[in-house]
Amino acid sequence: MAFESLTEKLNAAFKKLRGKGRLKEADIKEAMREVRLALLEADVGYKVARDFVKAVSERSVGENVLESLTPAQMVIKIVNEELCALMGGSNVKIAISPKPPTVIMLIGLQGSGKTTNAAKLAAYMRKHHSKRPLLVACDIYRPAAILQLQTVGKQLDIPVFEMGTENPVKIAKSAIDYANKRGNDLVILDTAGRLHIDDQLIGELKAIKKAVSPTETLLVVDAMAGQDAVNAASSFHEAIDIDGVILTKLDGDARGGAALSVRAVTGKPIKYAGIGEKLDQIEPFHPDRMASRILGMGDVLTLIEKAEQAFDEKKTQELAEKLMKNKFTLTDYYEQLGQLKSMGGLPDIAGMIPGINAKALAGATIDNSMLSKTEAIILSMTPRERDNPSILNSSRKKRIAVGSGTAVVDINRLLKQFETMQAMTKQMSKGRLPAIFGGRGRFGKF
Fold first, then answer.
1. Which residues, other chains included, contact 147 with Cβ-Cβ below 8 Å and sequence gap of 6+?
2. Fewer CB atoms inside 10 A, N or C side of the chain?
3. Of residues 360 and 185, which shows the higher confidence score?
């Protein structure tokens, strides 16, 4: 989980501040020294860490902070605001060309995740902005680069334009002509990378950019590369003039320093973050939400958005009505587990909830094999048995066990879990529908 180590160290520093009634400048100075060390250990650049601590210190030693009733909270508030500012202040959306197609050119070092994130971004723009994307294979050097793009494109049902090992500039120009004829209003160019920045790479990228004038040039940066990623970002921006950054593998680096440094070094916003290996695991980068998560305050807004995307509105409404009538069935039970699964791993979800220690759930997931077993058991029941599991006697359970390839003990375990869920729904019918079922009080009192 990104920033895990930084979060722990910052909270340790703030805990010392909270233990003091009134703060002195010496207290602030000691805390800021620990904050600076925490940032450096998180792979944040020295100058970025130094400037950050200086900004926080100058604001924290003001009379309104030292004389406040809760000075520690004021310092944390200042750190939160400065972290947010360091990462760009607010989310910056991708520019959309008034004259289609919008052309997005992805650049970056080899291995940064350009090809996968080209597909991720295309799928995201189609789902959330109703775009008709076209992926373009401009990497003619890396073995199997074209095949990789075609594979992810096929998985997402997104068309891929390729011309083999033709000149990349010609490929890019031909792709835009193709998009105009076929009605694709979004073109994403997957360009070549290198293990290091060289004149040949920069020359090719400049030629492509000059030929097609992309609406956006986005640099794909591997968060796990640390300061190497930040140095590469600086070099690419100086040579190509980027418009923004896609930060990948943010889920795999406990330090996360690249996210805090790349904005300060390039002056360009992080627009999207890759948060997992799956092709739907990309999301807009919100500096304020990320700052909140770094400080262990959770990220409720992103959690709500994930829930709204995962839970089908129509099914949620139907479920609410069933809950009101206390008609929650085994089929409903399975559907809810499946929708929870689509929200991601438990630590990712827990990390967005204020006050929850996501580290304590490290490695915890919704067991896919258990879900498969649950599905097999439920599908081996008759509709009547699903609606009224109380009729499941010994012979029925044996029949279901044979049909689902499980044991009677598995069926008994499922029924016990379901009984617990039913008991919860009876309690819910006297109050409000919880947010996990899409409610947020939306359906009022039952």
1. none
2. C
3. 185
